[in-house]
């Protein structure tokens, strides 16, 4: 019932608020490790979130985890998708499949005999157009727990479509709103935030992304959404 009423009970990423404006804030997030998949929505009947299942399988959200531990990683909020093509800052290395390795767990840990051990995961899930072309390939990411400071420390994927990357420190201007996230509303919020950031002297460094914190069956007025613009 809590999630229907908009209560967010899952883990959310840590960040530092470095500026509070009129109706928005600027956040700085520390480096992290991301699991990433690149896909073409056109091959998935136009589904811009078509990479979700691939990554969900990697963390074990839909069954046995598809990684070499295997470790099950809990889903968290928000899910982030691109409203426009987004440049995502990355550092090396990039890791795909590999040999099994022993990886310590993060809390909370719930162990059942004969089942994979769950590992807490931090959000967001990030999706971005690749190459900046409408209808082009998309990139979706799940950000892994902060305990994984290097890509090679995380559970290695067995699906070759999933790669692990190190994401550098990033800073976003953010505006929060409730309700549905139709194209018109999202565009209006993004245009407002961009204008507010530039008015206050921030240099916009890329297009916006949309963050959604609730499942689709949550009552619309009780949903938490955010537009995020890199600065």
UniProtKB/TrEMBL annotation:
Supply the Gene3D superfamilies for this chain.
Answer: Regulatory factor, effector binding domain (3.20.80.10)
> What's a Pfam family in this record?
SOUL
Q: Which domain of life is it from?
A: Eukaryota
Q: Which InterPro entries match?
A: Reg_factor_effector_dom_sf (IPR011256), SOUL_heme-bd (IPR006917)
* Family statement drawn from the similarity comment of this UniProt entry: Belongs to the HEBP family.
Q: This protein is called what?
A: SOUL heme-binding family protein
Q: Which organism is it from?
A: Oryza brachyantha (malo sina)
